[in-house]
Amino acid sequence: MYSQTKIAIPIFQSKISEVIEVAKDCIDKGADVLEFRIDALKNPDFKEIKKAIDEINFPIIATNRIITEGGSFKGSEEERIDILYKCCDIVEYVDIELQSDDEYINRIHDTGVKTIVSYHDFKKTPELDEITYIVKKEQELGDIAKVAFMPNDLDDTLKILAILSHFDNTIAISMSDLGSYTRIMASKFDSPITFAAGRDVTAPGQIDIETMKALLNMNLNIME
Length: 224
Hints:
Blueprint: E1 6-11, H1 16-29, E2 33-37, H2 46-56, E3 60-63, H3 77-87, E4 93-97, H4 102-109, E5 114-121, H5 128-141, E6 144-149, H6 154-166, E7 170-174, H7 176-179, H8 181-185, E8 193-197, E9 207-208, H9 209-215, H10 220-223
Parallel strand pairs: 1-2, 1-8, 2-3, 3-4, 4-5, 5-6, 6-7, 8-9
Helix pairs in contact: 1-2, 5-6
């Protein structure tokens, strides 16, 4: 039985032309979903973003990450959310951070787009009860919960496995090389999505798409 976990590849490019080029390359390499990191664009303009999404014509997660969680968007919070809101009708998923105002999260979720409510900490991994609280809150607000934390030791990575084993519709990641195995184990817990690297590594511990596909036993040539 092959994994049902989708492999998403983030696209972190500053120009729309490069986004389209890298997207096509990632599709050729076997991505199931593309994460369009809108915050990487030098001058994000929705008309150009829409043109790119239309041309790529592939399942996409629209992400406009805030600076405090590893993002690069330099506009106002209202501008950041407005771009995500406009994307709701043209993408499969929208990722919005839990620390965003509930009103913004509800506005996006109410469009009917699959909403990934996320939380990232690049410095530490909280205690398990705190992670559990975060995931429960995310699931109340959206369709898929996502947490990603930096481990300080192996025990921190095991907290992520505990979350994956306890919650459905949850993406849980332990970052860095120490936690990279959790990206692979996600499929064993039927996590909806795991993340791999195409041309760009956008988080510590991401595994390249070719290796990820082999490890998840999802190589399409083998399936045929």
